Amino acid sequence: MNFETKRLDDGIGIEVVGLDLSQPIDESTRRELNDVWLDAGILLFRGIGTSTERQLALSRCFGELEVHPVESIRLEGNDEVIHLSHKDDSRQALYRFDGEAIAGRILWHTDLIYTTTPNRGALLRMVETPEVGGETGWIDTAAAYDALPEETKQRIDGLEARFDFVSNLSKMRFGKPSSIEVVDLGTLEFPEFPDVAHPLVWVHPESGRKSLSISPVQLIDMVGMDRAEGDPILEELVDHTTRGRFSYIHHWEVDDMVLWDNWRTMHYAFGTPPEQVRVVHRTTIKGERQTGRLL
Ligand SMILES: [Fe+2]
């Protein structure tokens, strides 16, 4: 192997150590990286994302890359990279959590779960770190599923939950912080998405591992059950999954990169106080998977 692996402190995710991106990545290394990714779901590469070219070379090991539909956030000259920065960006929503203004915070979610084609994964590269905040968290929802009591696994088998695109975090139905206040919802406009039903238990098409698909930001209710009956089940699952036991929080240094499997994880952007500068570049790995159904 041209790299070593190390479990991250919380036992969730793996750090890849010693990978050399100054050389092209050969086929056997590419295969080994994919095996490790499939096994762990979250991979950390410290300090080796020194350029867009290196980020793209690593990202391409894991599949075909997607061009983001919103042109204004693409990195100039590289359509497959999106440039995320919230400095002085009035398009983005601003909230107060426990009285403190925070820009760019997005609570636990799986990308594109409000569609029937969530992307396979994504890779973030830290370009400019803020002085305060800016962490990212990941939850391994396969580990969360494994740890459920057997009777809960049986009870949720075959059940579906409904998801919708939610841009206003104060409208979340599950896992919403009690202290959230809207300061400004921003000027970004979002298209309409029809509601989607997904099985509560996802089976990973490549590994066969089961995970929970409960993405709290977009979780609406249980399909075919009234809310009095369905909400307590969803509350219990969200609480079980987000309590901290299955998560890894990354405190970024410049040039760190993290790759995640969007089919078995959720992530959380902590955001920063609005005056802080934070720049990340992200690539998105396409998904061929069709899951759930439109309602
Ligand atoms: Fe996301």
What does this structure look like?
This protein has 295 residues and is an alpha+beta fold. The chain has a single domain, classed as Clavaminate synthase-like (Double-stranded beta-helix, 4-Layer Sandwich), CATH 3.60.130. The chain contains 5 helices and 21 strands. The chain has an 8-stranded mixed sheet, with helices on one face. α1 links the parallel β2 and β3. The protein is globular, with a radius of gyration of 19 Å. The termini are far apart. The relative contact order is 0.26. Fe (ii) ion binds next to loops.
Secondary-structure map with pairings?
Blueprint: E1 4-7, E2 14-17, H1 27-40, E3 42-45, H2 52-59, E4 74-75, E5 78-85, E6 94-97, E7 100-103, E8 106-109, E9 121-128, E10 136-140, H3 141-146, H4 150-156, E11 160-163, E12 181-184, E13 196-199, E14 201-203, E15 210-212, E16 219-222, H5 227-242, E17 247-250, E18 257-261, E19 265-269, E20 279-285, E21 293-294
